[in-house]
From TrEMBL:
<dbReference type="Pfam" id="PF13952">
    <property type="entry name" value="DUF4216"/>
</dbReference>
<dbReference type="InterPro" id="IPR025452">
    <property type="entry name" value="DUF4218"/>
</dbReference>
<feature type="region of interest" description="Disordered">
    <location>
        <begin position="392"/>
        <end position="411"/>
    </location>
</feature>
<protein>
    <submittedName>
        <fullName>Uncharacterized protein LOC105852820</fullName>
    </submittedName>
</protein>
<feature type="compositionally biased region" description="Acidic residues">
    <location>
        <begin position="397"/>
        <end position="411"/>
    </location>
</feature>
<feature type="domain" description="DUF4218">
    <location>
        <begin position="1"/>
        <end position="77"/>
    </location>
</feature>
<dbReference type="Pfam" id="PF13960">
    <property type="entry name" value="DUF4218"/>
</dbReference>
<dbReference type="InterPro" id="IPR025312">
    <property type="entry name" value="DUF4216"/>
</dbReference>
<feature type="domain" description="DUF4216">
    <location>
        <begin position="262"/>
        <end position="336"/>
    </location>
</feature>
């Protein structure tokens, strides 16, 4: 308190009269009102006594080992002890809501529900899991080489489309033949992934993963909080058109809103948690204003899931949380605000700063027509299947083994 007197003169000089900025009368009034409501006959309160009681409780709680206190209780979005061995197919996290039915009515939402996915949605979800599994990378290269050898006139764009459409079925048949031959390439992970997930999946409305809380758009309807904003940074190829033979590759931020949370079940052996989102078209619905802020418009969507080659799913572990703030000056446009994880602090290390600079530079490059070129076809996500491509797909479905024996390893 003696040291405080040194700053009073300086504060009065800089900030002006103290009664314009002093909180003591308000605090005193609130404590007096609170004490009056409790005791009625003794309208008094003491800030010092309140601090003293709080410090005494803190001092005592430090010596309580087996009791949950302010210092040892888990955080609100804690997910550390829900899964022991975390990996791609067993991510760390926990769903929100009540676990099972109780004998009385509660306001908590049901934790999970079981639904049956249609074939197209199940194929899209399963394909994304395969394309993000490092164990499947050799099989992907093998399948792409096979498509290119069957028809060398196809562009890279058409090869990628055929690869996305037919890889799941080809991968299942390929692993089945290698397993019959007793090949060492077929590990337990490859075997279970090739069999594919069950049609019955778990569906959640809320999930906590990586210390972040996510809600679907349906769950947060009517709430004042927002937990459905998602951004994911991916390394992808950019095609100017379906005939582009030299696509550009780079990291791009995709912005979306969470619509569904599903958990794929690979015959009880592995479980993959996926987020399905409404993704903003980065060519039409994403831009940067003159202040450097990222703006998105959900009237322009891509990867809606209507086409088999769309990718509406991402792994839950890849999602980062953001908020969308309404832009009052421009209708239907929202400002992107990146969220900070609780109890995680930026220590100013060089690596984290480099990552932030890369993300900002990627968005700037998009506007500069470096990664995404303006002449991109409006329907670049929907491919017109040519006659040569149909013949290749028919050969894959029919199991035509007319390939030369020297290339028999591919069948």
């Amino acid at each position: 308190m003696v040291h405080l007197l040194i700053h009073l003169a300086y504060e009065a000089k800089v900030a002006g009269p103290v009664h314009y900025r002093w909180m003591y009368p308000i605090e005193r009034f609130l404590f007096t009102l609170k004490s009056f409501v409790r005791n009625r006959a003794h309208p008094e309160g003491s800030i010092a006594e309140g601090y003293l009681a709080h410090e005494c409780l803190i001092f005592c709680s430090r010596y309580l080992s087996s009791v949950e206190t302010y210092f040892n209780r888990p955080s609100r979005n804690d997910d550390s002890d829900f899964v022991e061995n975390t990996n791609l197919l067993n991510p760390r996290g926990r769903p929100l809501g009540r676990k099972c039915k109780v004998g009385f009515n509660v306001k908590k939402r049901k934790r999970a529900s079981r639904i049956s996915l249609d074939k197209k949605t199940l194929l899209q979800a399963h394909r994304y899991v395969l394309f993000n599994s490092h164990n499947v990378d050799p099989f992907q290269k093998e399948h792409i080489d096979l498509i290119r050898r069957q028809n060398r006139r196809l562009s890279s764009y058409e090869v990628d489309k055929i690869h996305g459409r037919s890889f799941s079925d080809w991968f299942r048949e390929r692993v089945s033949r290698l397993e019959e031959q007793g090949s060492a390439l077929v590990t337990d992970d490859i075997k279970w992934l090739a069999r594919g997930p069950l049609e019955i999946v778990r569906k959640y409305s809320g999930y906590i993963i990586n210390g972040v809380r996510f809600h679907t758009k349906k769950r947060e309807r009517g709430l004042k909080t927002q937990n459905s904003g998602i951004v994911v940074t991916v390394k992808t190829k950019s095609y100017a058109s379906s005939r582009d033979k030299h696509p550009k590759e780079g990291q791009i931020n995709y912005y979306g809103a969470l619509t569904d949370i599903i958990q794929l079940d690979y015959s009880g052996k592995y479980k993959a948690l996926l987020f399905k989102c409404d993704w903003v078209d980065i060519n039409k619905g994403c831009r940067i204003d003159n202040l450097g802020m990222t703006l998105v418009n959900f009237n322009y969507l891509q990867h809606t899931g209507n086409d088999v080659c769309d990718d509406p799913f991402i792994l839950a572990s890849q999602a980062k949380k953001i908020f969308y703030v309404e832009n009052r000056t421009q209708n239907d446009w929202f400002v992107v605000v990146h969220a900070k994880v609780r109890d995680v602090y930026d220590l100013g290390d060089e690596l984290s700063n480099d990552v932030d600079q890369v993300n900002e530079q990627v968005l700037q490059d998009i506007n500069d027509n470096d990664l995404i070129r303006p002449e991109v076809d409006d329907n670049h996500d929907i491919m017109e299947v040519t006659t040569s491509m149909e013949s290749i797909l028919q050969n894959d479905e029919g199991g035509d083994d007319t390939e030369d024996e020297s290339e028999g390893d591919f069948f």
